[in-house]
Design goal:
151 residues; mainly alpha; 7 helices
């Protein structure tokens, strides 16, 4: 027999838990892509599509994004020296932002939604730095090889 003087039982723990999904905002994607390079942009977009259960778009993002990154890395050595340094990063940042806003969620949609919350800015920072280091590891050998064979 239950104690009639005990406090009533309730599921307050379940009602307080949040089942919202963390996604990257277009601003986080843009800033992370500008600093971390195209690999960061691909990763952020891929993660958002996966979080939104759009796995076909996530796979397309990986295929197209990594293919374009490879083309980008191979074209770096032949870009003229007087070509402005910020043009290419601005282009892939704008493309990544447009994909995020059109096919994922805008910042306002994330704010207004009970289903989504922003990813941590610390996570954005760690991913951005990791992508930048990985990009350097991939780009430097290509540039050295190009210099060695063109001399």
């Amino acid at each position: 027999m239950e104690n009639p003087y005990s406090a009533p039982k309730s599921d307050m723990g379940q009602s307080l838990s949040t089942d919202s999904t963390s996604i990257f905002s277009p601003n986080q994607i843009t800033l992370g892509a500008f600093i971390g390079g195209p690999l960061a942009a691909v990763y952020f977009l891929y993660q958002n599509f996966s979080a939104l259960n759009q796995f076909d778009k996530a796979q397309q993002t990986l295929r197209w994004g990594l293919s374009l990154c490879l083309v980008f890395i191979c074209l770096l050595p032949i870009i003229p020296e007087n070509f402005p340094n910020t043009v290419i990063p601005i282009v892939y940042c704008i493309v990544a932002r447009q994909i995020a806003e059109k096919h994922q969620c805008s910042k306002q949609q994330i704010i207004e939604s009970d289903l989504f919350r922003f990813q941590s800015n610390w996570r954005v920072f760690v991913i951005t730095v990791t992508a930048l280091i990985l990009l350097m590891v991939l780009v430097i050998p290509v540039i050295f090889a190009f210099e060695m064979f063109s001399a």
